[in-house]
Amino acid sequence: MVAWWEGYDLSALKAREKAEAEAAGVIEEGPASPSNKAAGALDRFGKPLWTATRIQVAEKMWGEGLTTPGGKEYTESLVKPLGINNTMSVLDMSAGLGGLSRTMHRSYGAWITGLEANPMLAEYGMEYSKKANLQKQAPISHYDPNNFAMDRRYDVIFAKETLFTVADKGALFRKINDSLKPGGQMLLIDYVVTSQDVLPGLRSWSDVEPVEPFPWSIDEAKETFAKMKLDVRIAEDSTARQIGFIASALSILQKHLESHELNDETRDAVTSEVKLWGKRAEALMKGLKLYRFHALKPG
What is the DSSP letter of 28? Predict the structure, then answer.
């Protein structure tokens, strides 16, 4: 990690990444083949959504095993009110590299099923779980949030900053509700809008998102919960906190860009991540919101 951040040669990493991409059928050049169309592997522009270099940049920004803002202390504080214990089953629908899944198991003893929409993140996350000897307690696997089925029910279902890319949220949340045990809890942290009227003003953000966003409005979210007879206990605006997390991380990255010599691949990855999160922060100041919803299913 130090060698990468200081800008030393990454030829070995590039060779490994190329081999991984070829094995997965994800190749940047040439026409797409059926094998490289695995759900979540490519972004909307036909490029690999995640690479080994981007993963390292994300972990530098947010912490080991994490790909979204907040750090382990904050993300753990999000799930603490759920009262998770070692008798409960938990589904994490935004597992990423599995950092929070493993933290939840270590902290509360619950067995966590981690699902991740991107196959590379899921593969890396499972490797991290194996290295921690938690492949059974906190497994990470790939799924398509637009087309999946559950074969069991859970006490807690959790999702952080991922479901805003799903177009048919009605179908998605019916599946989530069916997978939630009576008396179970759902915790959703996701991007929403105050109303659909603000979306035209967010084009500079939505047009650069690697996966096309479909944020619903706050009222649409509440109406969906009501239709499923879920009791919404918390609907909290976390936008200001999110902007603060992003600003802090971007400041750190900017300082490194100014004071360190990075090779072209790493500099490109850092620049792309800065642009993405900069656009998200800008959108959060123009009508996009990050909300935390905590809902209970009647027993």
Answer: S
Q: pLDDT tens-digit profile of 271-295?
A: 899 899 999 999 999 999 999 999 9
Q: Give Cα 212 distance to the centre of its chain.
A: 14
- In order of 24, 157, 161, 232, the CA distances from 293 in angstroms are 35, 12, 12, 7
- On the CB side of 261, CA atoms within 13 Å amount to 2
> What separation, in Å, do the N-terminal and C-terminal C-alpha atoms of the chain show?
48
Dump pLDDT digits (tens) for 83-109: 999 999 999 999 999 999 999 999 999
Query: Using CA atoms, how far apart are residues 52 and 121, in angstroms rounded to an integer?
Result: 9
Distance CA 100, CA 160 (A): 10
For residue 158, the SS3 value is strand
- DSSP code per residue over 70-128: THHHHHHHHHGGG---TT-EEEETT-TTSHHHHHHHHHH--EEEEEESSHHHHHHHHHH
Phi, psi of 234 (to 5 degrees): -135, 130
How far apart CA 292 and CA 235 sit, in angstroms, is 6
- Torsion angle, alpha carbons of 229, 188, 152, 299, to 10: -40
pTM, entire model: 0.85
The structural domains of the chain, ordered by start, are 1-299 (3.40.50.150)
Check if the beta carbon of residue 245 is closer than 8 Å to that of residue 253.
no
| Virtual torsion, Cα 9, 13, 17, 23, nearest 10 deg | 130
